[in-house]
Amino acid sequence: MVLLPLAAAFTLLVPRPAAAASLAQITGFGTNPTNLNMYVYAPDHLAPKPALLVLVHYCGGSAQGIFGGNGHDYATAADRYGYLIVLPEATRDGHCFDVSSPAALKRNGGSDSTGIMSMVDWTRRHYNVDPARIVVSGFSSGAMMTNVLAAEYPDVFSAASAFSGVPAGCFATTDGSTWNGQCSSGNVIKSAQQWGDLARSMYPGYTGGYPRMQLWHGTTDTTLAYPNYGEEIKQWTNLHSLNQTPAATDHPQSSWTRTRYGGTGQQSPVEGISIANTGHTLPQPGMLAYAITFLGLDGGGTTTPPSTGALHAVGSGKCLDVPNASTTAGVQLQTWDCQGGANQTWTHTASGQLTVTMSGTTLCLDAYNHQTTPGTKVVTWPCNGGANQQWALNSNGTVTGVQSGLCLDVTGASTANGAPVGLWTCNGGANQKWLLS
């Protein structure tokens, strides 16, 4: 049984600060045959009819580990958009989810997927969840479970996003083992029809539609080998009655190749993103911004986001920062590791200003010299009520200058400390997505 690679792949993750609200453990939530733990994150500003994200951790992981680590962008987005997060936690040795046993691969079969659906049902009973926006995402072991849940409960989930997984049913075993070496090594190859039929067998008699599916994989992944990515695409295109010819292909980042099937928009029925020269280390900075849009978590709800907090750059995971906490007018803003200091604490005022107060001095985020052209520096300046100091925090995560209509942009999509921040034509990139929390 080779469980260590999945767990080891994530041992270097560094937790980030938790969001304002905190995880709450729920007990007695319903049928739970494999003794999973359940945690819920309900942000302080919950939408009247919130979406629900089921977020499933990797082998060796935990609810708190994924919430504070490489899934943290989901948590900060929940603060902005007011959706709920349910985090199942495996308690067996190795902390992997069962996607192998016959019970695991059948709707209401009596394994982990049954307990997870009890968590969903509990949350729906206790919150006014939007039934059309119940979605699931997971990493590694959690990505495998994401595929299984979407196959077994297509009438519950509207969308799914799986990072470094395998097709639903690929990991099946009959000897009691939870590890399938043939599948993990990418040597289980089937036709699209065979994969689709395997998924359909998990919910016999179902004739409805299936969730839209987003699939991510690194081309040099040796833990859950890269051929599994192509097999996942076969399965989900078949479930959507599509062929495997992309409707669109592009490169959102230089190392990414994105293919869309059955549509060309941000919520196509099936979307795949392969990452060149990358192993079992997903997600990486900026990826969850695309997943949030694909899953529909950034729309459909109405909430009042926090008016004061750090302004997180989604693409890098860093914070908008006044260099050296300088109170000198005209200092260009940068991104830096989040540390909670006054020079990273911003207030979005009723008049649309973004202010920062350091050593008793309050300054405003300012488009330098009233310029309205791409490349304009963003600086601190004494507040004067000018249009170049008014900013819109938009539901898609962008921050736009009222005067220019340009987006607040991390120059060059840099993820390094000290990356300068300016204005640029809005292009939907992760380096133009921000979360105030």
Automatic annotation (TrEMBL):
Task: Provide the GO MF annotations for this entry.
Answer: hydrolase activity
UniProt keyword annotation of ATP-binding present: no
User: Is Kinase found in the keyword set?
Assistant: no
Biased composition (Polar residues) is annotated at 245-258
Assigned keywords, A-Z: Hydrolase, Signal
Region annotated Disordered sits at 245-267
Q: Which residues form the signal peptide?
A: 1-20
Q: Which InterPro entries match?
A: AB_hydrolase_fold, Esterase_phb, Plant_Biomass_Hydrol_Est, Ricin_B-like_lectins, Ricin_B_lectin
Record-annotated Ricin B lectin domain positions: 308-437
- Pfam families membership: Esterase_PHB (PF10503), Ricin_B_lectin (PF00652)
Give any Gene Ontology cellular component: extracellular region
PANTHER family, per database record:
FERULOYL ESTERASE (PTHR43037:SF5), UNNAMED PRODUCT-RELATED (PTHR43037)
Q: Give the matching NCBIfam families.
A: esterase_phb
Record-given protein name:
PHB depolymerase family esterase
